[in-house]
Fold these 2 entries.
Entry 1:
Amino acid sequence: MTTTRENGSLYTHIDKKIATIEFGHPGSNSFPSELLARLANEFNTLSNNDDVAIIILKSEGNKAFCAGASFDELVAIDSLESGKQFFSGFANVINAMRCCSKLIIGRVQGKTVGGGVGLASACDYVFATESASIKLSELSIGIGPFVIAPAVTRKINVSGLAELTLDATSWKNAYWAKEKGLYARVFESIEDLDKEVEIFTEKLAFYNYEALSEMKKTLWIGTEHWQELLIENAEISGKLVLSEATKKALSKFKK
């Protein structure tokens, strides 16, 4: 069952020291700005929760994992400030995930586009199904995945980012994503996926908490400047979305 709420839904369940964050939106689990803000705040809150050792990030339903940011909000941008604010949504979530003291395990059950690829990249370890293809289509509408690029590059390197970004209209399958390093393991079915996520996280949750926290820090060494970098990149996208070329590309999507 998926949510019908216009601004989406976000629920967190804590059991056996594992916090499961589940987000949803009727638009293929896309993110309006309000939902992105709620997700960033949730990571910040769980980071300081002593009852939580591990976080699982998942989305509703059995189809798309995440369709990226709200397209309705994208086409409505009419100023540099509103553009920067819009693209800062995923920047704030990625930075919250990066700074979170808890390891974050991604559970990707289906296709993911744009900012959704950024979310998967910002997880510390990702399980996926064979249906979890990925695409970065931003160049095809006159912008680019600048905000999420540092997170994606950290996982699949510059060559992988180039292949994914420049071939903006093509999907890369889950095994391509695994080969490049975005996914750790790929499963045939959601049932197999969920079984392994449960086994893996329950095992992790009972390891030395201090060791887990230090491991999290180690995995993110060298990203301390991202707090500024991702917001700067959001401004680049905010400028591009106001360009004539992008406005023309987006005009056909306006309702």
Entry 2:
Amino acid sequence: MTNTEELDALDRSILRILQEDGRASYSEIARRIGVPESTVRLRVKKLAEKGVIRKFAALINPFKAGYSIVAFIAVDAEPGKVKEAAERLSKLPEVDVLGIATGAHDILMQVTVRDLKELEDFLIEKLGSIDGIKSTETSILTSVRKWGYARVF
């Protein structure tokens, strides 16, 4: 599926239900939207094959799982080294979300760590060892008001 292809109403309904409850069975989804279970099964398979559904996973609350720090880090890279730095950063286990950005910074990422010491180690040892990074700016969340996921409808 390319960026220009549209999802139809049935695909959107299936995705909406799966985002609300990723454990919903095909039969439950079918009952809720009024189509045969086989239709739901086929649509989910196609959505996964096309990459619309990236994976099925549990959404973990890091604060309940022993992690006390969620931070957003803006990274500035040397000219010509943005993609290389982003690739290396994306491999770090602390990094939850990472993208090359427009605006004031080259790379934006979200990281989750257990405590301030682990954040310090991440910033100094891990980011400091990546060639091409000029500077970083870190903001720590003090509370979370909404923890969602990508909505496509």
